[in-house]
Sequence to fold (904 residues):
Amino acid sequence: MLVLASRRSCLQVIFLLLWLCPLIAYAVEVKHAEMALVGQAFVLSADLDYQLNGKAKAALQSGVPLYWDIKIKVEQQREYLWDKTIAEKTIRFRVQYNALLNVYRVRNENSGNSYSFSTLAAALNLMSTLRNYSIMAVDAIQPDKNYMAAIKIKLDRDALPLPLRPVAYTDSQWYLFSDWYVWPLKK
Amino acid sequence: MAFEKIKPPVSLSIVILFGLIMLSLQLMSSSTQASSELSAMYSWLLLANVLGSVVLLGLVGANIYSLLRELKKRAAGSRLTTRMVSLFVVLSLVPAAIVFYFSMQFLHQGIDSWFNVEIDRAMEDALELSQASLEQRMRWNLKQTQQLAEKLQSAEENLPESVVALELETLRENVNASEITLFSRQGRIIVSSSSNPSDILPSLPDENVWLQVRKNGEFMSMSPVRDDSLMVRVMVTVKTDEEQYLQALFRVPVRITDLADSVEFAFARYQEMHFLRDSLKLSFSLVLSLVLLMSLLAAIWVAFISIRNIVAPVKELVKGTQAVASGQYDQQLPVIAQDDLGFLVESFNDMTHRLSLARDETRMAGLEVENQRAYLETILANLTAGVISFDAQYRVRTANQAAYRIFHIPVSHIIGQTFLEIAEGYSELVEPLKAVQRFLEQTDDIWQHRLAFLGPNGRQELLCRGTPLFSQEGVRVGAVVVFDDVTDLIQAQKNAAWGEVARRLAHEIKNPLTPIQLSAERLRHKLTAKLDAGDVDILQRSTQTIVQQVEAMKEMVDDFSEYAKPSKKQAVDINLPQLIQEVLALYALQSGTRFKLSHEDAQLTVNGDPVSIRQILHNLIKNALEAIDGKGLIEINLKRVQKNNADFIEIALYDDGPGIKEEQIEKIFEPYVTTKARGTGLGLAIVKKIIEEHGGAIWVDINRKLGAGFIIQLPAV
Fold:
C-alpha cells in the first residue's frame, strides 16, 4: 500500500516536471565552443548568446549592474571513479548602464579592462565572443586519457542588490543561465 | 534517574534557542544594510530563517497534533492544557498582529516617502545639466579641432610631412589636447602627437567612429578612460587633396569629472532605488514577517513546554484520583515542585497513604472475623449434636453435619425449607418434626422436648433443645435447635434396669425354689405309703405339678441370670463365615428347611466371644424356624460395610415366614416381648445385649416386605 502510494507520488512528480520543462527555456545559451592547442596552452574560443528579458533589461536601465559568470571546466573521465577536475576557470563580466554618458559599460573582472558601448547589443556582443582565453597548460593532460570540456553561463544572482535577491530567487524570469555545453577535448 | 541528570534543563535549552533565533534574525536584518559584509550571506540567512520557521512550525504542529489526540482520548489534563495554550496564543497573537499591521504600514509609507515628484525631477534635471555641460565642452573641443584641421590643411599644402609633425605638436599644445593624430584615408597613422611621451601608439578609433566620420565628416564622443577620468574623442575630416582624418583627444578637467561622477552616482543610485522600490518593500516585509513568525512560533512552542510542565502534576493528580476511585489506594505521586501544586500532591499522597492504611486494617479485621467464623463453623460441624438454625419464617438457615447423621437427610436438601416441607418426603419424621415446628412457633423461651422415630438403623430417641433468637430491638429473628441422639443412653439405662431386675429375681426367687421342690418330693415320699389309692393319685399329680413348675421357674431364673451377666468374656478373632457354617451344620438335618449362606470374598472377621456369637445365631435361627414352622427358606448374607469412618461386618438374616407386625417392631428387643405361646421373651433382648456389648447394632429391616429380617452390624477387625 505504502509502496504503491510512493510510486504514485513519484509519477506525479515526473509528470509535473515534464509539464514544467517548456517553461525553462534557456535565456542564455552556448552556441559553439572549442578548445585548441596554441603553443604550450589550451585556449578557448566560444560563441555565446544572451537574450535578456524585460525584467533584466529594466534592471539594467535603472543602473543595476549585472554580473555574468562564464564557467569553464575540464574533467578527466575515469572508469570506476568519479570524474577528476583538471582545470576550472571562471570569466566574470559586469554590464552596467551609465546614464550620464548614455553608454553601456562592460568590464572584464578578471583582467580589469572595461569597454563602453552606446548600444546594449554591442555590449552583449563583446561578452558573446570569447577568443583565445588561455585555460590550462598542455602538460596538465596525459595523452592516453579521455577528457571532456564544459562551459556554462550564469547570471550571478547573489551579486544583485539585496532587495532584489528574494525576487530573483523566486521569479523564473531571473533564472538566467545556460545548460552545460560539453564536448570532448581533442589532443 | 541518570538520564535526568545528563539532560540539560529545559529552561537552558529555551534560552539557547531564543539566543539562536535572535542571532539569526539580527544577522539577517544587519545584512539588509547594503554596506554590510553579511550582504553576501543574505540568501543563506534568509533560507536558514525560513528553515528555522519551518522547524518551529513542525514542532508547534506536532504539539497541537498530540494535544488533539489527547483531547480525543480525553486524557487527564488535556483540557486544561488546551485552555491555557489557547489563552496564551490569543494573548500573544493579538498584540503581535496589531504591532505587525502598524509596522507594515509605517514601513511602506516610509519607503514611499523617499520618492516624490520633486526629487525625481531634480535628479533628472541635474543629470540633464551635467549632460548639457559636457556636451558644450565637447562642442567646444570639436570647434577647436575643426579650426586645427583648417590650419593643418593650409600647412600641409605648403609644408613637407616632417614639418607638419612639428606643427602638429605646436597646434596640440595650443588647444591643450592630450593627443592629436592624423590618419590617412585608409586609416593609417600619418603623424601623431601626445602630451605623454611614453605613449608610443596613439589611441585608435574603433569601427563605429570611422563609420560616423566617413558619413558625417565629424565625430565626437565622451568616454571614461582607465583612471576614472573622462576623455573627449573628436575626429574631423581634413579636406586636403587626399582626404585625411584628424583625431584629437581632450582630457576633461578633474573637477568636472568629479562633479559629473557625483551626479552620475547619485542619479544611478536614485534610479536603482526607484526600480527596487517594490522589491525593497517586499524584502523588508519578508524580514519583518519572519521575525514575527519565528518569535511567535518559538513563544508558542515554549508555551507548550511550560504549560505541560505546569499541568504535569495536575495530570498526575487526575490519574492518581482515578486510580484511587478504582480502588488502588497505594498511589504515591512524585512531588515535582515545592509550590501550591506540590503541596496538593503531598496532601494527595498523605490521603492515599491513610486510605491504604485504613483499607489494610479493615481487611485484617475482616480476615480475623472470617477466621473466627470458620473456627466456629468447624467446631459446629464437628459437634456430635445436630445444630440447626432457623430464620424468622422458620426456614432452615444452617445445619451441621451431625444434623445429617441424626436425620439421615442431606444438608443441602433442608437449607431454606421449613420442617413441614422437609417432613413431606420422609413419612417417619412427620410427627417429630411437626412437634418441633410447633415449639418453634409457639415458645418464646428456651424449650426442651424428647422425640422418637424409626430411623434406618432402628428406633432413635432424640433430645432437642430450642432457643428462640431475638434481635437487639426484641424482634424474633429465628431460632436455634440442638438435637442430641440419646438412643444409646436410654438403651443403656434400660439395660441396667433390666440387669438389676434379673439379678434380684435370680437371687430372691431361686433361693426358695430348691426347698419348695425338696419339700414337695419329701411330701410325696412320706405320704405315698400312708394314703389310699385315690389320695395317692392326687398327691402324685400335685407334687408332680409343683416340681415341674419349680423346674420351669429355675429355668426362667437361669435365663435372667444369663441376661444379667456380661457376655464378652474371652475375646478372640472370629472368622464369621466359618462360625456360621458350623452353626448351620447343627440345623442341617431339620427336614423341610433350606439354608442359604452368601458372603463376599473380603475378610469377614470380628473380635468377640465365640460362645456369645454362637448364642446370637442360635437364638435368631430358632426364632426363624419357629416363625416358618420348620418349612421354608432361611437366608444369611454377609458383607463388609463402612459407616462413620469405621468398618463393620453386616449379617443380614431373613426368613420367608409371616413377618413381624409393625406395632411390635419398636419393642421387639425389650425383655418379655414375645409373639410365641412358650418362651421367656428374653431371646432377642439377650441378642441385642450381646451385640451392643460387642460394639455393634441390630435392627429390624423394615424394608423387607417378605417375612422377617434382622440386620446385625459388628465392628470388623
Chain A has a mean pLDDT of 82.
